[in-house]
Amino acid sequence: MLTMEILNLLQWPAMAVTVTAAWLVGSNSKRKRHWGFWVYLLSNLLWVAWGWHAQAYALIALQFCLAAMNIRGARKTDTGDKGAL
Prior knowledge:
By secondary structure, this protein is mostly helical. It has helices at 2-9, 11-25, 30-54, 57-79.
């Protein structure tokens, strides 16, 4: 039962990590933006864990799509590509 409670509470750290990632990605600092993409990936993992527990399969699919976009964004930040997203 304790494991179930912990998994139920996982949505709150996942939300906090997502908000932190959004703040970092919105920074003027390239370094902070880069870290923001990695923090977003952490939030994707947290949401997948919570979604699996909650049987929220659409949320899990969304997190995989968002993770792919985060990886794409991180690569563009690394290469300095200013082209169309």
